[in-house]
């Protein structure tokens, strides 16, 4: 059986860690192991491709929590030529991430073009990509951003371009998204959606191929 690379399921682990934000350090080893075990079980039961769910579950059981969490971006700057550059290292959905994302777009609102660097971004929550994408569509554009399928319930969920976002939209400005083989999960889903709508030009190497969405699952903490 082909061994899965850690990058494929790192996005899932990071999205769980984001629920605890700065409280990760307070989790005991037993609590961390319990959370990872429950995630692994959920993967087996609900992942869209059952065989891959089992394969990833076994690999996930061998992982540990990371305590190095980037809220939204690692680097934001205006390059020569008035090009706004944003390096996004992970995709989180807690409130602070959206605040930083909005502040980033406000800081770069006068840029003539944008580069969003997703290299080595393992993904996480797709909500931050949905939020960021909406800056590059006109207000009132209600096209479907992405459609999610849940094997467990056999249901489809569609997310449309957000009507209300803080700050200015920039639908006509050029956008370039940089990826590599370690771009996965929510990060590659964002790149795919923006390319599909002809809102971005993708630059780099083919990404990982793990843009499968997930959902929240309650995790009982071990006392």
Could you characterize the architecture of this molecule?
There is one protein chain. With 223 residues, this protein is of the alpha/beta class. The protein has two domains: 54 residues, no CATH class; 132 residues, Alpha-Beta Complex (2-enoyl-CoA Hydratase, Chain A, domain 1). It contains six helices and seven strands. The protein has a five-stranded mixed beta sheet with strand order 1-2-3-6-7, covered by helices on one side. A two-stranded antiparallel ribbon has the order 4-5. Helix 2 packs antiparallel against helix 3 and helix 5 packs parallel to helix 6. It is globular and about 50 Å long.
Strand runs, count: 7
Radius of gyration: 18 Å
Can you tell me the number of structural domains? Answer: 2
Number of helices in the DSSP assignment? 6
The CATH class of the largest domain, by name, is Alpha Beta
Uncertain segments are 1-22
Named CATH architecture of the largest domain: Alpha-Beta Complex
H/E topology pattern? HHHEEHEHEEEHE
**Sequence of strands across the biggest β-sheet:** 1-2-3-6-7
Overall shape: globular
Task: Give a quick rundown of the structure.
The chain has 223 residues and is of the alpha/beta class. The protein has helices at residues 7-20, 29-46, 50-60, 95-107, 127-133, 185-196, and strands at residues 73-79, 83-88, 113-117, 144-150, 155-160, 175-179, 201-204. Helix 2 packs antiparallel against helix 3 and helix 5 packs parallel to helix 6 (185-196).
Layout of SSEs?
Blueprint: H1 7-20, H2 29-46, H3 50-60, E1 73-79, E2 83-88, H4 95-107, E3 113-117, H5 127-133, E4 144-150, E5 155-160, E6 175-179, H6 185-196, E7 201-204
Parallel strand pairs: 2-3, 3-6, 6-7
Antiparallel strand pairs: 1-2, 4-5
